[in-house]
Structure formats: C-alpha cells, structure tokens
Amino acid sequence: MARRTTKSRNERRAKIVIATLYATGGLLALAMLALHESFPPISLWLAFAAAFAFFDWRSVEVNDRLMMSPTVMVALTAAVAFGPGYAALGVATMAALGAVSARDVKERRLFQPVANFGQLVVTASSASLVVEQFVGIARRGAPGAYWAWIALGSALAAAVYASVNYAFVAGAVRAVFGQTVKPWSHMSELLPSYLGMGFVGGLLGATLLQTRVVLPLVFVVFIIGYHEFASFGQLREAHAATLRGFVKALEAKDLYTRGHTERVAEFSVLCAQHMGFTGTRLERIEWAALIHDVGKLAVPRDLIRKPGKLSSEEYRELQRHAHVVEDILAEVEFLRPMVEIASAHHSNYDGSGYGGVGHIDGEEPSLEASILAVADAFDAMTSTRSYRMALSQSYAFTELRRNAGKQFHPEVVEHFIAAIGGTKRRYGSPFLHDPEEARRMAEARVESRG
Amino acid sequence: MTLKKRDVWPRQGWRAVGDPKVSIKSPLIPFVGALASVSIALLLYPHATTGFLTLGIWAVLLAESGLVKVPAGSGNRLSLAFIIGAAMPILLINGTQPDLASTGFVYAVGLLILGVARVIRGDGLEHVHADVLRLGVGVGVYAMTYAVIADILVTGGGLAWMEAPWDRLIAFVGAGAVWFIIEAGLWAVMTTRERGLSWRYLWLLGLGDWMVMLSMMATGALFGFSWEKLHIWAVLVAALPYGFAHVAFFRYLEAKKTYGQTIRALSRIPEVAGLALEGHSDRTSSLAVETAQDLGLSPSEVTDVRYAALMHDIGRITLNEPSILRRGFTDEDIARWGAEIVAESPYLAKVAGLVARQHEPYRRPGEQRDPSLPTASKIIKAASAYDHATMELGFSPLEGLEVLHRGAAYDYDPDVVVAVRRVLERRRVV
User: Fold this and answer.
1) Which of A29, A143, A39, A35 minimizes the C-alpha distance to A96?
2) Of B214, B321, B341, which is closest to A248 when you measure between CB atoms?
C-alpha cells in the first residue's frame, strides 16, 4: 500500500495535540497511583520491568504498522504477583519505561514514544486495577473459589488491556491520519492469542505466589508468547517475499510491467475498499493484482512488447504460456486463491471471452476477478503503450460504463468509478479522448524519433 | 572453512557409508519390550508411595500424549509425551525427595499402553517399537539424571546448600538437556539408513529442534511444579502456553515450506519459458546437495546449497532466447540478475550471495585461490557444468566428469571435483 511521504501541517498539529494529551494522562495516572499505592519489591519489579521493556522493544509487525508483543502477559503476571496496593503503580512504572520501541529509535521519532508513554501507562494501570479488585475478592472469599476468581479477573483484565489499548491507538490514528482503524487481516486469529496471553499472564502470576520456583519457567512462557507473534510475522514475511520475488522477476523481464502491476494493485485496493472489503479479503485482492501478469514470465519478450493487437494465434500462444506459469504458481500453496483470481480476470462478465475463451464452468467470475479485470482495463487505457498514447480518465470511465454488463461486472464498474473519482487524482492524459488520435500520435512520435 | 571439516569427519563426509546401521526388525522386540515394561512396573509398584488410581491416570495421560506428534524442523516428529514425561518426576514426590518408583511405574505402564494403542491404531510394528524404545530410553535416562542431580544438590557430600524446590528446578534443567541430546542421537541413529546420511549429520540436525523441545519441557515442568498447589488449574496454566508454542511451530514450518515452494516455482520458470533445459535446476540441485554433504557442510549450509542451486539460473528469465552470448550478456550478468531476484527476501540473503558468485572460477590465472569464494558457490558451478555437459551436450557421465577434471585448473575447485566424482561413483553412474 502507498505510504504517506508528505507531512501536512495539520498532521503535525494533530500529533502534538495527541502526544500532549496522552502524555498528560499518563503523568496524571502515575501521580495518582504514587499517592495511593506503594512500590512493589524492587528485585521482582526489576525482573518484570526488564521483560516488559525487552518484549516491547522487540514488538513484531504483524500487519501494516500494527505491532504486537506479549507485553500484556508480562503486565498481568506482574500485576497479580505484586498484589493489591502495589500492582497498578508497579505495572504503570514498568509500562512507562517500556514506551520506547526499537523502531522509534531507528527512525528518530518523538511522537510515537511520547504518545506510547501515555497510552501504555493508562492501559497498564487500568488493567492492573481490575486485577487488584479480583485478587482482593479471591483472598477474602472461600479457598475453593480462589482460582475461579483469579481466572475471571485475568480474563477481564486482559479484555480491559486490549480494549483500552485499542481505543488509544484508534484515537491517535483517527486524529493524525484521519483514518478509522479497519479490521486487519487475520485479526480473528491474532486477537484470541492476545487475550489468551493476558489470561495466562494472570494465572501465572497467581502460580508464582504459590511457588516461587516457577519464575524461570514463567519467563520461558513469555518467550513462547513472543514466538507466537514472531512466527506470524515470519510467515507474513515469507508470503510477502514470495510476491516480491515474482514481481521482481517480472520487472526484470519487462520494465513496463512494473508500473502497471503497482497501479493495478492500487486501483483494485481502492475499488475493493469502496465495496467494503476489509482484512484478509482486501489483502488477497491486492496480492492477486500483484501477480496477475506473472504469466508473462514465460512469454517471449517480443510477443509481450508487440505493437498493435495480437493475432488470435499469438493470443492463444500467450494464454498457453500464462497457464503453464499459473500451474507452477499454484504449487505455492498460499498463492492458490490469488492465482485463481488472477487467471479468472481474463474472462468476461457475460461469459464471452477474449480470443474465444469463455468460462470453463459457465459460472460468472468472482467479484475479486471482476475488480481485477476493471482495474487492469482502466490502467491499460490510461497509460501509454508502444502503439498508443495514454487516453483520458473520462474516456476510460465512459468505455468501462459502455462495456458494463458485457465485459465487466456492472456494479464493480460503478464502485470503481466512484472510488477512483474519490481520490481527486487524474489518471491518463488530460485531453486525449479519442483512441484513433492517440494511435496517430504514437505513430508520429515513433517517426519523429526514427 | 568448510573444506577443513574433512580432517575431523571421516573421508566420506556426511554420507552414511561405513556408519553403524541399527536394525530393529526382529519380531521378538515388541514382546521383549512388553515383558520388560510389565516386569519394571511390577518390581517398582511395591515401592511407590502414590496410590494406584493416581498413577494409572498419569500413565494413561502419558500414553495419550504420546499419540499426538508435532513435526519439527529436522524432520523428526516429537510427541507430546515430552510434556507429561518431563512433569512426572517433578510432580510425583515423597516428601521433598523425587519418588522414583512411582515415576518409573508411570513410565512403564504408560509406554506399554502407548505401544498397544499405536499397534491397534495400525501404525506399523517397526515404527511403533522404534518410537516406544526411543521414548523409553529417553524417560529412563531423564528420571535417573533427575534423581542423581537432585540428590547431589540436597545431600551430596554434606553440602545440602540447596533448598527445595530449587533443587528440583535445577535437576529438571540438567536432566531435560540430557534427555534432549539422547533423543536427537537415537533419532539420528535410527533414521540414518532411511535417509542415507551420517548419523552425526542427523544428530546436528536433530539438535536444531531445541526450541520445540524447550517449550514442551518447560510447559511440562510448569505443570509439574504447579500441580501440588493448583491441581486441575495447573492444566490450564500449562496447556495454554503450550498451545501458543504449538501454533508458533506450525507457522514457522509453514513459512519454511513457503520459501521452499516459492524457490521451486521460480526455478521452474526459466525452464518452461524455454530459457533453460527442462529439469536442469532440479538435477543440479540434487547433485550439488549430495556433493555438499560429501564435503561435510553443515545442515544449514546444505539447505542454502539446495536453494541456491535451484535458483542459479533464475536470472535467465530476463533473456529472450536461450543463447546468452548472442546478445552480449555474460554468465556474470545472469548471476547478478538472479541474485537480485533472490535478494527480495531478506531470509534468503545468504542464498542470494551464493547465486551471485556461482559463475566465478575458483582461481584466476597467476593468482592464488580466492578464499572469500564460498564452497557452496564452487559446488554449484561444478554441478551445473556437469549437468550441462551430460544432458545438453550429450556427453557420457565419464566424459562429463572429464570436463570438470580438465577445468580444474581455474574453473572447478579440484576438491569439489573429487567430491562430485565420489558422489557419481556412489550413484554408480561412473
């Protein structure tokens, strides 16, 4: 996805406001706790503070700019182990120390650590206060119910930790970037782990109160928690690296494809977002767009760059090569759904096919494939080819609408036009509305050069 | 650095030639094993201080956990019995002393049930007794080591400087490490024939699974230590962390598999595009891997060789026709382009380095050999040339080998060529 490169003044102002607000909240919370609570035993506090800082420092990027670490587990273990009257102050000071992350230092950022300081302190102290209540109840209650109260308290504290944290992060993202945080891919997989870790953290803290000897094992469990997220990051990286590898190979083959692939991915994502796609489904269409032209890898370069339309013989040759590559690609398991989308995007909405290739099973292509088909056609019209200059955006829109219901999915076309129109950017030529003229201009350009 | 290993390891490098072969195919073994476990259980039971019902439940739990197996990076499959097995001597105590008799009884009965259950499940007799034997030796040594360390720490030489239960923790760490080393060793010896690799190589490979083992044993110990106070809640305290570990292993394996599949898919593209001979990268890779193992490269280096050999021609996809020289491109260009594609994933940075240098001669006229050139690159160069000579130019295997020998002045490292020869001799093609 495109990353912001220009920093607007508004963005900076919002950052200052948020950072001040969060940091003040954090300082206030610390001051209040310092008045009402006492500091836990220093050796135990040091051990947990070190673990908290270590794991926060090594947070894993599990999604675009979304960092996760098992700090929730460390915080709740510490909260139960410190006990009522100590927990909130102890854990809040731990969190205050762990606010800086490796990324902030590497990129010399100030906003993130200051805002993180505030949000982590408030998050940690509110979850710890929940823990304190329940540990108190558990101690006063019947011995038989002790563990049930601890378990309930840990589960609630984990939920509080996660939701307070989420509220702060979402608030900052909305204020600074003007975006709402959407469900990210694999959220349903990661969120339970996160909550489960908080829950286990509380139980581990209570175990620690019973038998001190498990302390080293508790730290091993923290490391296991870290690997839960790290493995996710690594799997994600393996998938991303695979895509980058194929895209790079394609670029090496044909440089024109580079810009094309990136733009088609961008258009597809814009359109899919407009249609309400989120999370894994959105990611899948972006990835499918990135590999939609990989079939060209096995096609002789002269054929890729051939000016003008291809003969049906040549087109069939192209299709044959593309299918061979798609078969190879489908051997990479996680790519299979993407390959399916990519290979379906050539077939038309109404079942007729370019070069006589219709639907194999008579079904209409999936929404994903339809989006990809529209994005691909739009970019083909609005970019310069060897035989034709780029056409205007309005011409491309008219052309898409004209073919809606025939070549393209009509609803997808409307969403696409609304999504691209909504970006306030203009693609293609500002004035060329006639394909004949665009062709003549390209010829003239070749002649003047040659 | 790697070539020197030949002085330490046998001349055959990592191939299983001349290694002891363990065969446990005798039909008597299951009966002997069953008899042994029944007699151990009967001998130990009178000394056990824990009730029969409790011991029976632990034994069933041990058997149950032994039925669930987790694949590890080495190819070994580790069962969850490591969790329950590790917890037993910690959990079964007589005052402050480990209750060895109860522990031994649980192990013997648990393994017997496990063996019977797996035979009923239809796992194949020789697999079952190999696995159960391995597990039995492992838990036996674990319990003994545990007891010895705990005893030394508490009473040894009148030192008595260690308070319970810290002595149990240290005993667990020491005994767990011993169990892991033995487990990996036994697995290596038992699979050396099947894999055709030296048990020493497999042992190193098996020791690479320490993360899996650590998380299983640590959750087992957590269970053992918290059982006394937490009882049934101890299950939750230990099971959830193990669950996280379990998910993490599968993701790591999945990531590894993705890299493998991606490399294979990429390596096939120049071939289907008609820019390289069909099957060239596969054949080069298998010859290079065997040569690397012959030269005693470490397991992770061998993996790099496999990947780099598969990818060595990937730079060719930029070409339009098979003849690279016609357009003024050289082997160096191909290698550089290929390395750039591979370098897109930081995980494969080493492989990219090998791909970049696989065209280089091991020494240039008037110079010494280049010490910075990795052995792996030299292996790939020789393997690729051999395949080119035999499959594309139509030479016989002996003539192909002769091409390498003739190029040994500059292009192909003589040590590598000799290793290739040994591999081909073992394949009985020359």
Assistant:
1) A29
2) B341
CB B350 within 8 A of CB A330: no
Residues B174, B293 share a domain: no
Least trusted range by pLDDT, from A293-307, B166-180, B358-372:
A293-307
CATH: 3.20.20.10, 3.40.50.300, 1.10.3210.10, 3.40.250.10. Which one for A254-449? Answer: 1.10.3210.10
The enclosing domain of B318 has a CATH number of 1.10.3210.10
Whether B17 is covered by a domain: the verdict is yes
Would you say A97 and A53 are in contact if contact means Cβ atoms under 8 Å apart? yes
Tell me the shortest Cα–Cα distance from B298 to chain A, in angstroms. 23
Res A112: pLDDT: 84
Question: Which of A100, A103, A87, A110 shows the shortest CA–CA distance to A12?
Answer: A110
Residue B117 lies in a domain: yes
Residue B329 has pLDDT above 80, yes or no: no
Q: Is A409 left (phi over 0), alpha (psi -120 to 50) or beta?
A: beta
> How many structural domains comprise chain B?
2
Domain that holds residue B317: 258-426
Which pLDDT does position B117 carry in this prediction? 92
CA distances A251 to A291, A440, B318, Å, are 11, 28, 9
Interface touch B272/A329, C-beta < 8 Å = no
Cβ–Cβ below 8 Å for A297 and B243? no
Burial B90-115 (b: 16+ CB within 10 A, else e): bbbbeeebbbbbbbbbbbbbbbbbbb
What are the pLDDT digits (tens) for A335-394? 999 988 888 887 777 766 543 344 445 566 788 999 999 999 999 888 887 778 888 888
Does residue A247 or residue B29 have the better pLDDT? Answer: A247
Distance, in angstroms, between B354 CA and closest chain A CA? 17
What count of other Cβ atoms lies within 10 Å of the Cβ of residue A38?
11
| Residue recorded with tokens 């558990």 | A138
Rounded CA-CA distance A347/A157 in Å is 52
Closest CA of chain B from A243, distance in Å: 9
In this prediction, the answer to ipTM > 0.90 reads: no
Of A234, A302, A329, nearest to B252 by CB-CB distance is A234
Query: What is the pTM for the complete model shown?
Result: 0.85
Under the banding of pLDDT at 50, 70 and 90, the label for residue A2 is very low
- Is B315 a domain residue? yes
Residues B45 and B228: beta-carbon distance below 8 Å: no
Q: DSSP labels for A109-162?
A: -SHHHHHHHHHHHHHHHHHHHHHHHHHHHHHHS-GGGHHHHHHHHHHHHHHHHH
Q: Stretch A257-284: mean pLDDT, rounded?
A: 88
Q: How many cross-chain Cβ pairs, A to B, lie less than 8 Å apart?
A: 173
Of B247, B254, B317, the CB nearest to A249: B317
Beta partners for B71?
B77
Helix (H) or strand (E) holding A197: helix A187-210
Contact A266, A371 (CB under 8 A): no
Q: Is residue B137 part of a domain?
A: yes
Look-up of token digits 């070190």 = A50
Taking residue A170's Cβ as centre, other Cβ atoms within 10 Å add up to 13
Tell me, what CATH number does B194's domain have? 1.10.1760
d(CA A415, CA A404): 12
The model's pLDDT over A72-97, given as tens digits with 9 standing for 90+, comes to 999 999 999 999 999 999 999 999 98
DSSP character string of B39-94: HHHHHHGGG--S-HHHHHHHHHHHHHHHT-EEE-TTS-EEETHHHHHHHHHHHSEE
Q: How far apart are CA B348 and CA B119, in angstroms?
A: 43
Q: Which of A254, A288, A443 is nearest to A371 (CA)?
A: A288
Same domain (yes/no): B115, B208: yes
Can you tell me the mean pLDDT for A172-196? 81
Q: Is A321 exposed, middle or buried (0-12, 13-18, 19+ CB in 10 A)?
A: buried
